[in-house]
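Morning F.,

Quick status update on the modeling queue. The single chain you submitted on Monday has been processed. Sequence for confirmation:
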Amino acid sequence: MSRVSETPATAFLKARGVLYTVHTYDYVEHGGTAVSSSALGVDEHHVVKTLVFEDDQRAPIVILMHGDRKVSTKELARQIGVKRVAPCSPENALRHSGYQVGGCSPFGLRKPLPVYMEQSIAALPKVYINGGRRGYLLGMAPDDIVRAVSPKWVNVALAE
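C-alpha cells below.
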C-alpha cells in the first residue's frame, strides 16, 4: 500500500498523542458508510459519520453518528437548545470545516466548532472515523475521540 500523506486531521491527532490505525478504501460518490464498512469488513454501526449541520442562526455544528443511523434533527435541536438544525450544503460544510463532504473529520477543523457525539458510540470498543480525505478512515477507541475533541453527548439516533 502506498503511503498516504498527512491530513489536518492526522496532524491534529499526532500533536495530541492520539493513537490510530489507517484504513483506506476506494471512495464511491454517494456510497456512504455502507461502502466503507463493506470495503473494510467491519459492521457499519462501528463506522462513525462526521456531519456538519447549521442551527437556526446558521451557526455550524458537527455531529458524530453511527454509520447505520440517521440524526433526528428535531431531537438534536431540542437537546442543544435551538429552534431547528439542518444539514449544511456541501459548500458550507467545506467552508466551515475545511473538508469535502465524504471526507469530513472532527479533527483539525478549519475553525473550532461545537462537536456533538451520539452517546452510544462510547460503548463500542473501536470505531472507524474519517481521517480528512475521501476513502481514508482512522480506527481508534471512542475514548480517544472524546479526549481529542471533547464532544457534548446527545441521544439523537434514528434507524436508517
